[in-house]
Amino acid sequence: MSPPPKSPQRSALGLLVLWQLSRGPMHAYRMQKLFEAEGKDRVVNLRARASLYQTIERLVRLGLVEVAETVRQSGYPDRVVYAITADGRAVAREWLREMLRTTDGEYPEFIAAVSLLFGLAPAEARAELELRAERLARELADTERALAQAPPGLPRLFMLEEEYRKAVLDAQLSWVRGLIEDLRTRRLDWSEEWLREIAAQFLPADDHQDLEGS
User: Where are the domains of the chain?
Assistant: First the structure.
C-alpha cells in the first residue's frame, strides 16, 4: 500500500486564499478587498498585490485552486474567477491544523540579528534597539486601537489575531526595553578584546590546527 501523498508546502497567505475561496468563487481583486475589510492584511503582507497573484498561481499549479470562469467586460480587463477544489479544501484543513499545533516555521530576522548583536559596538546596538522599541510601541498602540474600535457585538472569535498580536508585542517591547536598559547601564557590554577571549575559550579549535598537531 503506497503512502499518502505529502501535503504541499504550506504558507500563511495560501491558507487565507483557500479559506476565502471556500466561501465561493471570486476574482483576486474581490479577494483582496475582503482581506482588507476583515483585517487579514494585518496578518499577512498584502501590500504588493503581485504576492497574492503569485500565491494563487501556485495554488492552481498544485491543483488546490482552479479557474472557474473568465469574466469579460467591455472597456475593462478580463477578470479570472477562481474556485477551490476538493483537494484544496482538504489541504486547507491540514495546513490549519499544522499551523495551530507546530512551532517550526520561518526563522525571524530579528532572532538572527540578536545572535550577532556583538557585531556592533554596544552604543550602536542600543541605538538601533531604541528605534525598534519605538516601532514596537507604535504597533502596540495600533493594535490596542484596533481592539478598542472593534464593532460592538463582534464575537471575540474574530478578534483573536489582534489579541495574540497585542500579547506578542507586549512581550517583545518589554524584552527589548530591558535589553536597552542593560546596555545603558553596561550590565551587558563587550569589546573586541573580550570577544576574542570568549572565542578562544568557547569555540572549537580549527580542524587544520588539530591535524597539524596530531
Answer: 12-101, 109-202
pLDDT of residue 176: 97
The DSSP code sequence of the chain is: -PPPPPPPPP-HHHHHHHHHHTT--EEHHHHHHHHHHTTGGGTS--SSHHHHHHHHHHHHHTTSEEEEEEEEETTEEEEEEEEE-HHHHHHHHHHHHHHHH----PPPHHHHHHHTGGGS-HHHHHHHHHHHHHHHHHHHHHHHHHHHTSPTT--GGGGHHHHHHHHHHHHHHHHHHHHHHHHHTTSS---HHHHHHHHHHHSPPPHHHHHHH-
Higher per-residue pLDDT: 84 or 7: 84
Mean pLDDT, range 142-166, rounded to an integer: 95
* The CATH number of the domain covering residues in 12-101: 1.10.10.10
pLDDT at 74: 75
